Amino acid sequence: MLKLLTDLELASAIKKRGEALGFDIVRIASAHPFERDERVVLQRIREEFMDGLPWYTEERVRRGARSSVLLDNVRPIISVALSYLTDDLRIRGRDWTSK
Questions:
Q1: With contact defined as beta carbons under 8 Å apart, do 19 and 26 qualify?
Q2: Hey, which of 35, 37, 57, 63 has its CA 20 to 30 A from 77?
Q3: What values do phi and psi take at 26, rounded to 5?
Q4: Residue 78 per-residue DSSP state
């Protein structure tokens, strides 16, 4: 019999699977527009904090802050990260990954 998972159980299973595959960080975000982040970044562009990055445009920020523009019927966003730090650096006192 097929067991339906709750959202929390599914998120936990996805994170465990990502870690089992060797990713250091696995996170899940809502696919709702990142309105606050969009406003902040657009302001930074207008204040010229992004000078020297010609590809970092207002249009690109608006598109990236709204996942539904990038993908039809987008659902939660799953992000994974793999650290460049070696185990040797972690052993020396600071683990830069946050779990």
A1: yes
A2: 57
A3: -135, 120
A4: E
Q: Residue 70's pLDDT band (boundaries 50, 70, 90)?
A: confident
At a CB cut-off of 8 Å and minimum separation 6, what does 11 contact? 28
Q: For the whole prediction, is pTM greater than 0.70? A: no
- Tokens at residue 47, please? 């204040």
**Distance (Å, whole) CA 53 – CA 87:** 33
First-residue to last-residue Cα distance in the chain: 33
Which helix (H) or strand (E) is 26 found in, with range? strand 25-29
Backbone angles phi, psi at 77, to 5 degrees: -100, 125
Instruction: Confirm if 14 and 28 have CB atoms less than 8 A apart.
Output: yes
What's the CA angle centered on 54, arms 53 and 58, to 5 degrees?
100
